[in-house]
Amino acid sequence: MSAIRLLVLGAVRQHGRAHGYQVRSDLEYWGAHEWSNAKPGSIYHALKQMAKQGLLRAHEVAPSTAGGPPRTEYEVTERGTREYLTLLRESLTAYDQKPDALSAALGFMVDLLRAEVVALLRERVRRIEEWRASVTEHYTPEGGPERLGHIGEIMNHWVFTADTGAEWTRALVARIEGGAYTFAGEGEPFVGVLADGRENPYTAR
């Protein structure tokens, strides 16, 4: 799954209605242009494509007094909300995706109920452990990678990644169960967007 759809839908949803530059600024503020494909061209393309697909509704806003073409603002439709929540849940659960999908999901996980996030992350651990078991059917970590030649380092890396991924996920579950963060239905969550008029220090150059 490309993280760009989740990132753009989530960013628009946080504002209610947002134009392309707002979405770009928010994602750059998160550093998403460094760890995902959320580059300016990709963001604007995703906005237009998802509007065509009925996931976003486009509104043409009158130009400013300084002139220029009308600005387009977007809001998430009901269909877009369903798509957003599906992508969010999949990204919290799956282990076999690029890191950008998980990073995007972590940024929006508070849009779900606390208990559901815990359940999704536990499912992630289960899948990681299942994948690790399939690797160790052919590779015994205790024996070291050398007996398979340098190719053994590939499976050694897989096992290390599985172990560290599971450990990190369990620690996150413990923090969430311990009361960290404000999830859906619990009050006003932290919203990591730029305040109006504040300059973005992380703008891509």
Give structural attributes.
single chain, 205 residues, mainly alpha, three-stranded antiparallel sheet, 8 helices, 3 strands, elongated
Topology:
Elements: H1 3-15, E1 18-19, H2 20-29, H3 32-35, H4 40-52, E2 56-61, E3 71-76, H5 78-93, H6 99-108, H7 114-135, H8 152-177
Antiparallel strand pairs: 1-3, 2-3
Helix pairs in contact: 1-2, 1-4, 1-5, 1-6, 5-6, 7-8
Report on this structure.
By secondary structure, the chain is mainly alpha-helical. It is 56% helix and 7% strand. The chain is built from 8 helices and 3 strands. The protein has helices spanning 3-15, 20-29, 32-35, 40-52, 78-93, 99-108, 114-135, 152-177; strands spanning 18-19, 56-61, 71-76. The longest helix is centred in the C-terminal third of the chain and has 26 residues, at 152-177. It is elongated. The two termini are 27 Å apart. The mean pLDDT is 87.
Summarize the structure.
This protein has helices spanning 3-15, 20-29, 32-35, 40-52, 78-93, 99-108, 114-135, 152-177, and strands spanning 18-19, 56-61, 71-76. It is mainly α and 205 residues long.
